[in-house]
Specification:
binds phosphoenolpyruvate; 3-deoxy-D-arabino-heptulosonate 7-phosphate synthase; transferase; single chain; about 35% helix; TIM Barrel; alpha/beta; binds manganese (II) ion; 8-stranded parallel sheet
Amino acid sequence: DKRSDLANHKTVIGGVELGKEPLFIAGHCTIDPDNGSAFLETAEAVKEAGAHVIRGGVWKPRTSPHSFQGTAKSMDFLLEARQRTGLPVIAEVMDEAQLKYAVEAKVDMLQIGTRNALNYTLLAEIGRQTAEVGIPVLLKRGRHMGPVDEFISAAEYIVANGNPNVIFCPRGTMPALDGFRNHPDESVTPLLKEKSWVPVIADPSHSVGRAKYVPACSLASIAYGADGLVIESHVNPITGIGDDPKQSITPDVLKKLIQDARILWDL
Ligand code: PEP
Ligand code: MN
């Protein structure tokens, strides 16, 4: 296949050049618009724990149409978190209208979720709409996507349309490993790196889907060569919505995880 070769391309996020030191992204799965203060508290706490980027779900892809779908109102909290912490922020977009809204709000980094990882028209549109400023795009692995070539081709849709700042995000695949939410797939990291110049930021939270196993999966990801981690964290997970009650870790646990990941990185 014809592919962009940008072997010397550097991706810099939140002052971190990927590959030089591990990048940590943390925050709520979902911003609860009725409890924006919890999100702001989390943002400050994950910064203190060592995170470089704040995550917060504004619009959410939910399995049931009757579950909370997110709301643009949450964007205000995300931007307020950026204002208060001085850190860049990331949110998922699922369609062109949300993409436009997020680009106009100058969201620092965009996430394409697992469900849209094979939505080629959306990926191409993201490449075009983010080309000018090169907003980094975290591309989650499709839940039933081939590990390497199909993943690289999906990223190529964004790159070929103008934005080289794409990052692969293994987040577990289906069918799940019995007991976990998905089948953890951080082990694809070296295989991706063998064939592509694109950095990898792993998502242990969705891979295992259970807070108590997130630290182990995080360290495994770093051991496999990931350039960073995106982790769901919440100051009080049981009061959260979306995935937060099940898989968010507290900022205390995150702080220890970040310290351990840095030690492992330096080995
Ligand atoms: C998320 O990050 O909260 C999310 C919905 O991720 P995924 O698309 O990997 O399920
Ligand atoms: Mn989530």
